[in-house]
Amino acid sequence: MATPQESARGTSGNNCNFFNILFRRQSTPPPPQTKTNSNSISSLAKLLLPTPRRLKLDPSNKLFFPYEPGKQVKSAIRIKNTSKSYVAFKFQTTSPKSCFMRPPGAILSPGESIIATVFKFVENPENNEKPQKPALKFKIMSLKVKGPMDYIPELFDEQIDKVTVEQILQVVFLDPERPSSALEKLKRQLDEADAAMEARKKPSEDAGPRIIGEGLVIDEWKERRERYLAKQQGEVAGDSL
């Protein structure tokens, strides 16, 4: 039979073993997270966080067209780069055969804006029925680029994983005979787009050589010199008479 002293020593030993095991468990560092877990968390965060927008659109989610059956009509949308980087944008449509955009894409510097024009042919309704809500949609995509460069559509194919869908635009028809704020705004934007197009066509006095048509280069300095010499010859001929 164990004496009280032996029982006390046995109880004390058991307590020490218990605390040693507990201490070792608490002091053991947790296993490091694997790379797979880290990548999974990163992917999940990207899905949950909202996609950052690079462009501001006006109108924001619609394209307004005057409803004129049997005619080609126009819409307009202002596209502004609100980011701190150069951004390429590109149009896509569910009906590329009946619609085209001008420009279909471009590269915008930080803060730069452009008014794009969209052309569409409006089919005649069957049996003079009222126009149904069109299924036609447009999509505007954006892509961050390194700096100023020539726009080519292949940019989006080469970096498809970095492309952002900015907005899906619904088509809305307006009655051209019924005044509305949307119709007036559309007319102003179309006038502004036409003025900008004419300004781009007009040569600058100090712009230097410009490319026209199928790669034809016109040296404006040479052209000015020829006009000047012709004018001088005309004045000399007049004085001799």
TrEMBL record:
PROSITE patterns: MSP. It comes from the Eukaryota. It holds the Pfam family Motile_Sperm. InterPro entries: Ig-like_fold, MSP_dom, PapD-like_sf, VAP. Residues 54-174 form the MSP domain. PANTHER family: VESICLE-ASSOCIATED MEMBRANE PROTEIN-ASSOCIATED PROTEIN, VESICLE-ASSOCIATED PROTEIN 4-2. Belongs to the VAMP-associated protein (VAP) (TC 9.B.17) family. This is Vesicle-associated protein 4-2. The lineage of its organism: Eukaryota, Viridiplantae, Streptophyta, Embryophyta, Tracheophyta.
